[in-house]
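User: My collaborator sent over this chain with a note saying "see what the structure looks like." That's all I know about it. Can you take a look?
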Amino acid sequence: MNRKLAIERARNCNRGCLVTGLRVMHGHKVSNSNIKNHRLFKANISKKNLISDILGVRRVRISRRGERTIEKYGGLDKFLLNYKKRKMPMQALTLRKELLAVTNNKNEVIQPESLG
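Assistant: Without extra context I'll predict from the sequence alone. Here is the result:
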């Protein structure tokens, strides 16, 4: 793999959303005369402080869609424990491991709510 491409991919991975994994996408800007120019489609990602009942305040990069998903699950802790592991990005999985380690030490149980 080209070194420049590897560095660019690593940089884009760090700019991804905690929840959705949304990152920069590549594509074409097509003019009226059908001339295609390369462009980047950037995700609507911002840095937010998310409050966890167990882990405290965490500053993460998250998209607006990710914020709504966390609200739907009822908070960061319930999202990390109840969301499908295979769909989670690496950053979310590491937060989940931290959360499980802390809850196992405190013997706390967080009950999932219905997502109706």
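A starting point for your reply to your collaborator: The chain has one domain: 3-106.
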